[in-house]
């Protein structure tokens, strides 16, 4: 992801976010522009955007242009003390609790021209790192059965079919623990994210000492 950078969302990003959302999900599953706006207003720091500053490298016909480049991927979701992700969370941004123990993820999305290049994986590792630094208990998301293996590669555990029927679809609930019992796969994801994010390295390329054991 050389040259690309990660930042959080503002309302100026709304059109590009809505375009990628519509490209990645069927209409019944995609958040509409009003829902995305409500989320940004309520929890902008829980939107992670991967941006390519070289706009010419993307698909100029695809409307995902930002002021500082092209939107490549984005991940978003609220935090809460509730352990399970349920349908009301998608539409009710006011359920967000900044002190919540669990980071819920509503979508992991990549613009079509950038898909299958490792962009979503790169951004997911950053989300895992930031969530660990925030001392949350873990991350919860739901996905289609065909994506279970992808999320397991980061350390997520499949908890079976979710009670959610968002978009009238069948979902699996996946959970990533970020406590002292986190497995080696999760720890490896965090180490890789730290290596990819130079602000978390000291002058000789080793991890800074400011984090708890899990992320050192």
UniProtKB/TrEMBL annotation:
GO terms for molecular function: N-acetyltransferase activity. Signal peptide: none annotated. Coiled coil: none annotated. It comes from the Bacteria. Residues 4-177 form the N-acetyltransferase domain. Transmembrane segments: none annotated. InterPro entries: Acyl_CoA_acyltransferase (IPR016181), GNAT_dom (IPR000182), SNAT-like (IPR051635). Keywords: Acyltransferase, Transferase. This is Arylalkylamine N-acetyltransferase.
